[in-house]
Amino acid sequence: MASGVVPVSVGNISTKTGISAAVLIAALILSALGAVTWRAEGGLTLNPSDWAAVRFTIWQAMWSAFFSCLLAVPVARAMARRRFWGRSFLITLLGAPFLLPVIVAVLGLLAIFGRSGLLNDALTLIGFETVSIYGLHGVVLAHVFFNLPLATRLLLQGWQSVPAEQFRLSAQLGTPPSMVFQLIEKPLLLRSLPGAFALVFVICLTSFAVALTLGGGPRATTIELAIYQAFRFDFDLGRAAVLSLVQLGVAGGAAVLAFWLVPQITFGAGLDRMQQRWDVRGGVSLALDRGIIGLAAAFLILPLAAITLSGLRGLSDVPWGVWGTAWTSLWVALVSVVVLLCLALPLAGWVAATRKGSVEAVGLLGLAASPLMIGTGWFILIFPYADPADWALVVTIVVNALMALPFALRILVPTLRETATTYGRLSQALGLKGLRLWVWVLLPRARPQIGFAAGLAGALSVGDLGVVALFSDPDRATLPLQMYRLMGSYRTEAAAGAALILLVLAFGVFWIMDYWGRKNAIAE
Amino acid sequence: MLSLNKVEIAQGDFRLSAHFDMDAGQRIAVIGPSGAGKSTLVNALCGFVDVAAGEITQDGRDITTALPSERGMAMLFQDNNLFAHLSIAQNVGLGIRPALRLTQSETAQVMTALDRVALQGFAQRKPFELSGGQQSRAALARALVHRKSWMVLDEPFAALGPALRAEMLDLVAEVASETGAGLLMVTHSPEDARRIADQVIFVGDGVAHAPMETAELLNNPPPALKAYLG
């Protein structure tokens, strides 16, 4: 079957707007790339500390992906086969770190693992040395906090994809647990793990906020952080440009490799459906599963609880300015969501219509081009003509939209593709096309996914501490940046209060948009 | 003998009651409208669905709460009967020894079973290399070596064409009578029932009725069955 030659009818989604969106995205990113290349002036020489940053970036991403996936296996396995009180709550909670503003999570982790955190208090109590959260292991710990739940969800998805008959079959054959692992679980892990590893690895490569707060110094600086430092501390645009190119090479290369491995991102629903199992035993294996689930839940819940408690205490110390920045963050996020949807919907429509996976790679540009690389490029472009600080929020809006784009495409494309396949011929027969096709067929069918993608983009944008740190001056800030400044000036109580506001804002934005999507969604 | 003694199955609002015996070695079809509970009935017999009340006994042994592997049932599902990453021989071998360490004579048994379903030469293939009909036959070969007293089929071969389906049904009937196993088959086609079943259980209106002679029942159907047959 030469499917490449025979045109497959997938409805008449107009590809023009999709191509325009792709061109616009490419222009936005390539202009930044052009600017940094021009500014790097051919001097692609790296000094030892740059090399150290490259090595650290790759190492920490490897370790983060390794531990996230390694720990996700027992957690997902235990959750897939045990029914317990609060199971669906825990599964919902697994989605939380993805939406959680990085800086908030860092504050929460500090409360547990920091110098005067719970862990060190406990260690001192029983007469052990205290441990430090700063450096490589702190960065990896934070990344595992974010990505262990993500990896667990991806693996749970794998378990869920096992046909019910296979568990029935092994129950009927009376296969011992070790054989159930061989028969069912090993193949699904081999299928799911590479994708999970690749996704976590790529996400961690562009880590900025975690490295900014928990890393730093010659031994724990990521490339992103090095760009920021070259920029803010040395105002060495040339070096920032060179580092940006390096970052593009590293993250871009990895993203392209990972693209073929990274799995479909399914959204919330369905993961808490429980498969009936006959192969699970009580005794030691039950106790072990309980312990694993308990530890994983504590690892997730304790930092969040710590933020909430200290945030409530610190709320009264929050300076007025914080509320202003909260408002700024909110409208920046909302505009960013609109920008995202204007880019993602036509693009997703185009991807769905062409059926070529390669087109989807356009969205990947957003993942490969790191926020600070784009920021550096645009700074170079804007600098000669205007005060970049005036453009800080505009740049933040666009960069946040670009960063959410790969995820939005992964969420939107499958539904649009399915809709186009199912209703394509009917729509063609009725002469539905262009805007009317979107209004009457595509948008209503994809409503839950649109709501979810918008919520995700909104939450990520509210919590983003990236390019805004590059551009802003003391008068202009978003809430995460303001919170970082409070932490930097040791106003811990006020920072905790700001963290709570940020937390509520991020989850609130997500919840409202996701709820809009699911409400009145067409029942299947 | 397989006995259902005042068995009640409840799933949400759905209720199904059954109270009858099935003789060993019989070939029985289960027919009825979709949603009536045909699959639920056989799944309860195989231990995949819990029974709310009553008891199921097999040759006098209470198996109401027994594990699926501790009942004398080998079930063929509609699909996903084979593990995709195992060879056909391994898939069949699971029926003899779930830990898959076969002795020479057991391996020979697998080969004989594959011969019986005309899959000689396919032992080392993976399921995806086989057609739908061949996959069904591989699953049947496993049921053959599994040597359970009942073979249970839930609308098997639904994806096959009419000629191939008839051929498979005949093969199933032959295999069942060779091993002396009883056959319990969910179907919505009266022709399938006439083709291989001695008796028919009609499931409708929340009741699984006691098995009756196939020809007798289908020729003089009670009103509910008549409405279903049309």
What's the structural blueprint in terms of helices and strands?
The complex is a heterodimer of chains A (524) and B (230).
Chain A: H1 16-40, H2 48-81, H3 87-94, H4 96-99, H5 102-113, H6 118-125, H7 136-160, H8 164-173, H9 177-205, H10 209-214, H11 223-232, H12 237-259, H13 283-314, H14 320-354, H15 357-368, H16 371-382, H17 392-430, H18 434-445, H19 447-463, H20 467-471, H21 479-488, H22 492-518
Helix pairs in contact in A: 1-12, 1-14, 1-15, 1-16, 2-7, 2-9, 2-13, 5-13, 7-9, 9-12, 11-12, 12-15, 12-16, 13-22, 14-15, 14-17, 14-19, 14-21, 15-17, 16-17, 17-18, 17-19, 19-22, 21-22
Chain B: E1 2-11, E2 14-22, E3 27-31, H1 38-46, E4 53-58, E5 61-62, E6 73-76, H2 88-93, H3 104-116, H4 132-146, E7 150-154, H5 162-179, E8 182-186, H6 190-196, E9 199-204, E10 207-208, E11 212-213, H7 214-219, H8 223-229
Helix pairs in contact in B: 3-4, 4-5
Describe this structure in words.
The complex is a heterodimer of chains A (524) and B (230). Chain A has 524 residues and is mainly α. Chain A has two domains: 10-43 and 317-524, MetI-like (MetI-like fold, Orthogonal Bundle), CATH 1.10.3720; 46-310, Orthogonal Bundle (MetI-like fold). Chain A is built from 22 helices and no strands. Chain A has helices spanning 16-40, 48-81, 87-94, 96-99, 102-113, 118-125, 136-160, 164-173, 177-205, 209-214, 223-232, 237-259, 283-314, 320-354, 357-368, 371-382, 392-430, 434-445, 447-463, 467-471, 479-488, 492-518. In chain A, α1 packs across α14, α2 packs across α13 and α7 crosses α9 (177-205). The longest helix of chain A has 39 residues, at 392-430. Mean pLDDT of chain A is 85; it is low at 1-9. Chain B is an alpha/beta fold and 230 residues long. Chain B has a domain at 1-72 and 182-230: Rossmann fold, CATH 3.40.50. Chain B contains eight helices and eleven strands. Chain B has helices spanning 38-46, 88-93, 104-116, 132-146, 162-179, 190-196, 214-219, 223-229, and strands at residues 2-11, 14-22, 27-31, 53-58, 61-62, 73-76, 150-154, 182-186, 199-204, 207-208, 212-213. In chain B, strands 1, 2, 3, 4, 5, 6, 7, 8, 9, 10 and 11 form an eleven-stranded mixed beta sheet that branches. In chain B, β7 (150-154), α5 (162-179) and β8 form a beta-alpha-beta unit. The two termini of chain B are 33 Å apart. The relative contact order of chain B is 0.20. Classes of the chains: A mainly alpha (524), B alpha/beta (230). The A-B interface holds A 163, 165-166, 168-176, 178-179, 182-184, 187, 276, 278 and B 46-48, 67-70, 73-75, 77-81, 83-86, 94-95, 98-100, 146.
